[in-house]
Design brief:
411 residues, alpha+beta, Phosphorylase Kinase, domain 1, Transferase(Phosphotransferase), domain 1, two-stranded antiparallel sheet, 14% strand, transferase, Protein_kinase_ATP_BS, ATP binding, protein serine/threonine kinase activity
Length: 411
């Protein structure tokens, strides 16, 4: 899936000097207008930003010499490459513990492309955001490397290694077995908990801005962890409802109001989450040019099979049929519809989404596939609505507009 609309910035990379640590972010402006109320002992302190919080924790990250990371990856050997994205390649490597004692640690090392200021900016965002956050459902950053030399800039990040690859690999890859229904729900529950922490659990609100299946990594127990914070952004503060930015992200996951206006708040993450809910339900990508024209855009296709309709079961991923309780599947579809509400204010919070997924998990755990087959999705019999509770009219997924001039690179 292609990324689009990267920042346009005229800053010159030759002004950047050798940096053994992330460049310091300029402090927030404290200039006040002439009529600003003077401070008093009762006034509230200004909220701290990510750069302020990072200063308290930056010493917890290791600063790796480039030579050590070359050794760890056998000079970035192609056979050790485990992933590649818009911002660089990822290699599996082995490093020594910080104290030099004990067994080597298996890690993932991202080496950013040498694309000047933009690559540096994404690297800097990852270091600062991942240097601050701490949650079981967010990938852990162990350290970084920053070198400016005659051969250009080198920006690297060292993460904990996630052996079960990504949710995308399991949903759409042919080399891995299909994920069971309950596992898919547990993964989405963990992902929602990670987003809830970003939205609600920090001193500063964080908008992830790039939620998609490929950024949900899985550990040895298939526990999900969100990765790739290069596009993360601080949310609005005070009485502001949004922040305005250049439009960046992945086509097929970006909320329509953000693509149209560049206005950013946490509800764009909610939209993206709704897209991925339909991906785990259908086993289809949000955008797939290899399918018939009427089925290429997932959100357009699922509108033809409403959650309470008789034909709803036809959209269920075939490997899930005969193991997926129909009531639970309908519940996930309704939850996805609420996330995809055209009006951002009407979309649920991540805390509400967590509760919705937990209810679907409870419904699934209450079903015995062998004893309760009459309530399972089955492609070999007609679908009915027996026992389905009534719900509000399904909110149809809003069709994303075609990219405009400020969303470059989207096919």
């Amino acid at each position: 899936m292609k990324c689009f609309g990267f920042f346009k910035d005229n800053s010159k990379t030759n002004k950047e000097k050798a940096a053994p640590s992330p460049p310091k972010t300029p402090p927030r402006s404290t200039t006040s207008s002439s009529n600003q109320v003077s401070k008093s002992s009762s006034s509230l302190a200004s909220p701290r930003g990510i750069s302020d919080l990072y200063k308290e924790k930056e010493n917890s990250l290791r600063v790796f010499p480039l030579s050590e990371l070359r050794t760890a990856t056998n000079n970035f050997h192609r056979l050790l490459k485990i992933g590649e994205g818009g911002f660089g390649s990822v290699y599996k490597g082995s490093i020594q513990p910080a104290n030099g004692q004990g067994d080597p640690i298996i890690v993932a090392i991202k080496r950013l492309n040498k694309n000047g200021y933009q690559g540096h900016k994404q690297w800097h965002a990852e270091v600062q955001f991942l240097g601050v956050v701490n949650h079981p459902n967010l990938v852990k950053l162990l350290g970084y490397c920053s070198v400016d030399g005659e051969r250009g800039i080198q920006r690297l990040l060292v993460y904990e290694f996630m052996p079960n690859k990504s949710l995308e690999d399991h949903l759409f890859g042919k080399a891995l077995p299909s994920l069971p229904w309950k596992t898919r729900l547990q993964i989405m529950l963990g992902a929602a908990q990670g987003l809830a922490y970003l939205h609600e659990g920090l001193e500063v609100q964080v908008i992830y801005r790039d939620f998609k299946a490929s950024n949900v990594l899985l550990d040895e127990d298939f526990k999900p962890k969100l990765s790739d914070f290069g596009l993360a952004r601080e949310g609005p503060t005070g009485d502001r409802t949004h922040v305005s930015t250049a439009v960046v992200g992945t086509y097929g996951y970006a909320a329509p109001e953000y693509v149209e206006s560049g206005r950013l708040n946490v509800k764009i993450d909610t939209w993206s989450f709704g897209v991925v809910l339909y991906e785990i339900l259908t086993g289809r990508r949000s955008l797939d040019r290899n399918r018939p024209a009427e089925e290429q855009k997932l959100l357009d296709w699922v509108k033809k099979y409403p959650a309470d309709g008789k034909r709803f079961g036809m959209i269920i991923d075939p490997p899930l049929r005969n193991q997926c309780p129909l009531d639970a599947a309908r519940k996930i579809a309704r939850l996805a519809d609420s996330c995809l509400n055209k009006n951002p204010k009407d979309r649920p919070t991540m805390s509400q989404i967590i509760e919705g997924i937990r209810e679907a998990i409870e419904d699934s755990e209450g079903q015995n596939p062998e004893a309760s087959g009459s309530n399972l999705v089955d492609s070999n019999r007609p679908f009915n609505q027996t026992g389905v509770t009534r719900s509000p009219r399904r909110v149809t997924a809003h069709q994303l507009p075609r990219p405009t001039a400020n969303v470059n690179g989207v096919s």
